[in-house]
Amino acid sequence: MAPVLMLYHEHDPDPEMRPEPIGAEQGETVIAHMAAGLITAYRYFRQQGRSDLGTRATEPRNTKTKIGRNDPCPCGSGKKCNRCGGGETIH
Hints:
Layout: H1 2-8, H2 24-51
């Protein structure tokens, strides 16, 4: 990450943010190290993504039956579900 930040702040107007100037040859070396790091990171995460493809369990689906608005309420009141408060009583 340091090479990326170094190149990013290379032309920063704030002198405190600018790193020490580097030559063209050293700049090429930094870019080569960044490319090697990116390739290594890509290979690592590509392998991590493939390692658990077949082992991940699927999420359970909602097994509750959906109650229609005109169906009787499951609380046993005999009212339609949209009219009943689900067995709530107000005191």
